[in-house]
């Protein structure tokens, strides 16, 4: 069992690594790679692991690929705000066991990627990174090519679909606990504009929520060295600006979209968010998960299993 100091050193070395990901050849699984995979709980039997950096807009992004021996398609997977790929272990393990190649990356300012911690000036920066990476990957990997995003990751996927002019007719898109508005949206907005009167305040304290009924996950998250204890004010401003932008986007009439949402989610204003999504996407269906909180990928059983079964049912259509 490794101690916190040991894993912190491992994560720092991986974050500073300049090794570029090779999508043809798996990464050499040295001690640091093995410790990372073990610490975050990935099941790697018969899985080829590719890991390394790619540079977008002068920022090095950590990219991960998990490839089973026989792949029936490709899943592009995005994590949420204040999270990283390590927290997607249950979903990645499930998808690779189902036969999918999974490609994911740490958002800028998250996990092992570069960038100001947990911050962004414009939401479009998230979207541009995703668009560049996904355009390259779709040329390399077998169809079908599906996209899954959780929370802020789902918001990035939504913006990509609503703002991008390229066709997405043959792909499926899954939005899990999607962020548009947070639970206490108006309070957050008023607080943001109030704090802006005091330019010396650049961040607010983060309070860890009980966003899952999985106690082991909550404990692990509280001890994860890649977590942060503050939320930058500029990130809140970027989300407020993005909310104005999404209202102006035209309706998407082609993309095949599934929303999976827990009905006990206290992180996002899920009823409002679903109503907006239903207005913006013609071909959308919704699966509500009873007793599900925000971290549906990391829920306790049977909630997590129900979530995954809804996902598999949609992908298999």
From TrEMBL:
Keyword flag Disulfide bond: no
Originating species: Aquibacillus koreensis
SUPFAM superfamilies: alpha/beta-Hydrolases
GO molecular function list: hydrolase activity
Protein name: Alpha/beta hydrolase
InterPro entries the UniProt entry points to: AB_hydrolase_1, AB_hydrolase_fold, Hydrolase_4, MAG_DAG_Lipase
UniProt keyword annotations, A-Z: Hydrolase
Domain (Serine aminopeptidase S33): residue spans on this chain: 71-300
Pfam families, A to Z: Hydrolase_4 (PF12146)
């Amino acid at each position: 069992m490794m101690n916190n100091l040991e894993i912190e050193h491992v994560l720092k070395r991986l974050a500073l690594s300049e090794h570029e990901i090779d999508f043809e050849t798996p990464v050499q699984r040295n001690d640091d790679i093995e410790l990372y995979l073990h610490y975050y709980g990935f099941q790697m039997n018969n899985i080829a692991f590719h890991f390394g950096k790619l540079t977008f807009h002068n920022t090095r992004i950590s990219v991960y690929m998990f490839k089973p021996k026989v792949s029936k398609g490709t899943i592009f997977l995005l994590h949420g705000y204040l999270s990283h790929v390590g927290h997607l272990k249950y979903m990645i393990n499930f998808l690779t066991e189902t036969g999918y190649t999974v490609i994911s990356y740490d958002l800028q300012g998250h996990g092992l990627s570069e960038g100001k911690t947990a911050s962004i000036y414009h939401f479009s920066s998230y979207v541009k990174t995703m668009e560049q990476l996904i355009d390259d990957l779709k040329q390399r990997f077998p169809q079908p090519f599906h996209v899954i995003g959780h929370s802020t990751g789902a918001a990035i996927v939504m913006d990509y679909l609503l703002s991008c002019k390229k066709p997405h007719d043959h792909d499926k898109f899954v939005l899990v606990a999607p962020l548009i508005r947070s639970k206490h949206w108006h309070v957050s907005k008023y607080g943001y504009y109030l704090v802006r009167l005091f330019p010396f305040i650049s961040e607010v304290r983060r309070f860890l929520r009980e966003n899952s009924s999985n106690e082991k996950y909550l404990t692990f998250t509280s001890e994860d060295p890649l977590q942060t204890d503050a939320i930058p004010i500029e990130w809140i401003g970027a989300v407020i600006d993005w909310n104005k932008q999404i209202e102006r986007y035209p309706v998407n009439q082609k993309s095949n979209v599934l929303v999976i949402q827990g009905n006990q989610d206290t992180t996002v204003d899920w009823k409002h968010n679903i109503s907006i999504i239903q207005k913006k996407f013609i071909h959308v269906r919704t699966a509500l998960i009873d007793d599900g909180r925000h971290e549906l990928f990391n829920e306790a059983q049977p909630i997590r299993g129900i979530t995954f079964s809804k996902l598999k049912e949609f992908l298999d259509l």
